[in-house]
Amino acid sequence: xxSDPHARLExxxxxxxxxGVILPAFEIHGGVAGLFDFGPMGGRLRRxxxxxxxxxxxxxxxxxxxxxxxxxxxxxxxxxxxVGEFNDHMSECNGCGGAFRSDHLVxxxxxxxxxxxxKDLDKLISDNNVNCLTCGAxxxxxxxxMNLMFSxxxxxxxxGRTAYMRPETAQGMFMLFPALYHHFRNRLPFGxxxxxxxxxxxxSPRQGMIRLREFNMAELEYFIDPEVESNHDFSNWDxxxxxxxxxxxxxxxxxxSPGEASAGNIIRHPTVAWFMARTWDFLVxxxxxxxxxxxxxxxxxxxxxxxxxxxxxxxxxxxxxxxCVGIAHRGCYDLAAHESATGDNNLRAWRPxxxxxxxxxxxxxxKGSVIGPAFKEKxxxxxxxxxxxxxxxxxxxxxxxxxxxxxxxxxxxMVEEKRIQATEHGEWFLPxxxxxxFGIDRILWHVLDxxxxxTEKGGAPYTVLRLDPSIAAIDVAIxxxxxxxxxxxxxxxxxxxxxxxxxxxxxxxxxxxxxxRYARADEVGVPWAVTVDHESMxxxxxxxxxxxxxxxxxxxxxxxxxxxxxxxxSSVF
Length: 573
Fold this sequence. Notes:
With 573 residues, the chain is an alpha+beta fold. It starts with a helix and ends in an 8-residue tail after the last helix. The chain is 29% helix and 30% strand.
């Protein structure tokens, strides 16, 4: 029944809009592509999905939540590489001026067009006579890179600083590494998570919730010592075969457990494999069909500028296979970049030696007769900063950052190189990072897509949104059999009692036949519906109906509220 996927997608989109789940933003002003509202049903659904993500990672025990600003100074994003590297290629139509992502124009002519250089994109467009999607013309300007970040300014007038709306949440967590390192008592491994808004000025947003200009993301940065072997227990997934699509240069698609893939070096680092397994658990727990999940490894030419290995968790739905999670081994790229840009060495961790080592080393020592008069009260800070340059042969003159944040210039006549013998008990190093990055909106879309079930009831179409109860926007619908004889008052009392219980939400519906009200609740995924009738007035019981099969049982109101709060309501059936 209703097998046309395009028609199904239109019905799903229409229902989500009609029922206040996801709607175009600013529609009365013409709307803006790539911006959506989460309505009265969608806002709570997204928050519950977000909370489920946070709770999932909190169970690991060595991961904490942080929150950093969405406005990011330009210097941070220059250091991270986003100002120079965060680009998509754009092709502009000479006929109507329409602008499109170049790789989207040639999707049907290359298996992975987003890795192509501009000249290769131009050739594909030309060779295949690609039409403008707006006016139909075949007249294109050469593909040009376009940085995807929204720029802004911090401060007013001439004193303002260039900044950007963050394209990812990761950089805030790298900036907080010293605080995280202190929190975890200077011991690796540990992780931090952050959820919130990200912003990308997409050239041509499309596919509804799949490509947005303002979106909800959730990222985890897990800091590890690259010289310590990672030991993860994969036994929980021994019988779970993942659909793996490795880099085609090295292997064909396979089905394999994450432990086997790690041991066989299909997944190059065991911590990457660990987070792939934990990601699979999360996606399945919120209602993603496990048969529609695959992990695809980035090809070498596709790899982000910061990554040494990356796997995408892709989910299949109405738009085909869509990347929803990226799990990247970022190495020490980010911490090294920020250290290099700022001269701040507080982004390092300490690795103690098993036994102290006697070493000969070169140091740059300040000449007291010159440093003192030149820098006066800051002479001590200058000498300390010079000592931290051990092993370096500086090119003069050079700028030296002091611990108070100021910069001084060091000339050759101010210092001398000395060879000394010292006892070292350990070394400072830059941790490596494994990062699972989740697109919450894309996952939410696929949760809805997979939950959307069209059947027939009484010969007529009937829709059920089979959301997992843990993330459903509404826990229970309260339905008086009729709005008279005091039934509506009892129903309102139960509604208020449930809403005043922590983390529970209900809605009251007294309009129309009871069957029609059941259908409205089923359509938006309410897992339980409670009917208040005349018997409820006598013995304080109600009938509770289960969404997925229509089964009904009679239950005391106190028992109803208690089981809803404990998430054990299914046990009464």
